[in-house]
Design goal:
The protein has about 375 residues and is mostly helical. Helices cover about 70% and strands about 0% of the residues. A hairpin with a 2-residue loop joins β1 and β2.
Length: about 375
């Protein structure tokens, strides 16, 4: 009996043993499920970590690329470029990019560029350009000369004088620099210094009408009227169409109350140049002093028409409006008056030719040279 129970217990499944098997199988299944969930969780965590690393690198790389292309555009990473809460450092490459103004400043200045500004009457710009040009081309005498001209036009006599002197250091025979340096000195009320420069200019070119005209201005400023008159006459003999020398000679006549002589000279002046307001104002003065009041009014009006800001001409015109013309004064014949001055030039030429011929005639076995002879003075001016 006892043996049968044991066989049964070992080989036959009882209800109690079946429940135990079910519990064991269920425990195994639960274990597998838990392990699978653990592996799945670990894989998910690794995937998130990998994604975070990839997004973080991509944001920084893109930021670098944007800032490299345009340094002036700031780049802010978007949420898709970096995870929330992560601090992204934007690396900006250190690149020296000169501005447009700096690039322009570095471009060399050419003589043509500076000369173009001068010819366009933009003298302030011409001064800037020629100053730069002479700094880059310090041995170019013409560059210094043009710098001096531009500086004089804006009233910078100090820079103009320095520039002309530098041009003469480079080229002592640069006659244009001598002449314009003399102009600066005259305008700066230094006529005696100007005369020294003009003597040097005349040594280089004895037939320089400009040098004689400037010499006349320097003499005039010193009050040496006879010397001034002779200098202007020399300039006119060299160039009979030199309107400025004729005007300046007429100004001496006006100051010395030689109104008829001044009237003839100024009639010739406006015949040569009808676009200079000063000439018409001086003509008006000569006409007024010779009784041609209505002609004077017209002359002053012409001066104002050329330059509406010419104060002297405006005052003179308004004054003669209140003056009656003498009944015995006829209208001025400007063509005839100009011819009077032309004839006077012919007389000067004849006198100069006679003086030149006399210098070659032997006197007591000697030949008189030009250096031994005084300047020929017109008899009317002695």
């Amino acid at each position: 009996m006892r043996s049968n129970k044991n066989v049964r217990s070992a080989g036959v499944e009882t209800p109690h043993s079946g429940n135990q098997n079910q519990l064991a199988n269920q425990a195994n299944a639960n274990t597998i499920t838990v392990m699978m969930e653990m592996f799945t969780g670990i894989a998910f965590i690794l995937l998130i970590a990998l994604s975070m690393t990839m997004f973080g690198c991509g944001g920084e790389s893109q930021s670098k690329q944007v800032r490299t292309v345009s340094e002036t555009t700031e780049s802010t990473p978007s949420p898709s470029q970096s995870p929330i809460g992560e601090e992204v450092t934007v690396v900006v490459p250190d690149v020296d990019t000169p501005s447009e103004a700096a690039v322009t400043e570095l471009q060399p200045v050419t003589f043509a560029d500076a000369e173009a500004a001068f010819n366009q009457h933009n003298y302030t710009e011409a001064v800037r350009l020629f100053k730069t040009y002479t700094e880059e081309n310090a041995e170019n005498a013409w560059g210094h000369y043009m710098y001096g001209l531009a500086a004089k036009r804006i009233g910078d006599y100090s820079s103009a004088e320095e520039a002309f002197n530098r041009a003469l250091e480079l080229d002592p025979k640069h006659s244009k620099s001598l002449l314009n340096l003399a102009r600066v000195l005259i305008d700066d009320q230094r006529p005696e210094e100007a005369l020294e420069k003009l003597d040097a200019a005349l040594e280089l070119d004895p037939e320089s009408g400009t040098a004689f005209r400037l010499q006349g201005r320097a003499f005039h400023n010193l009050g040496w009227m006879d010397d001034a008159r002779n200098a202007y006459r020399e300039a006119i003999l060299i160039d009979s169409t030199d309107a400025w020398s004729i005007n300046n000679l007429a100004l001496i006549d006006l100051e010395q109350e030689r109104y008829e002589d001044a009237l003839a000279a100024l009639a010739r002046t406006i015949e040569l140049r009808d676009d200079v307001s000063i000439f018409y104002n001086n003509l008006g003065m000569a006409l007024e002093h010779t009784g041609h009041i209505r002609d004077a009014e017209d002359a002053y009006g012409s001066a104002v028409a050329i330059d509406s800001t010419y104060e002297k001409a405006l005052v003179n015109r308004d004054r003669v409006l209140m003056i009656d013309q003498p009944v015995d004064i006829e209208a001025a014949d400007f063509e005839a008056l100009a011819q009077v001055f032309i004839d006077q030039i012919r007389e000067w030429n004849a006198e100069a030719l006679a003086a030149e011929n006399s210098m070659t005639e032997p006197v007591d076995g000697l030949t008189t040279t030009e250096a031994d002879s005084p300047i020929v003075i017109d008899p009317d001016f002695e």
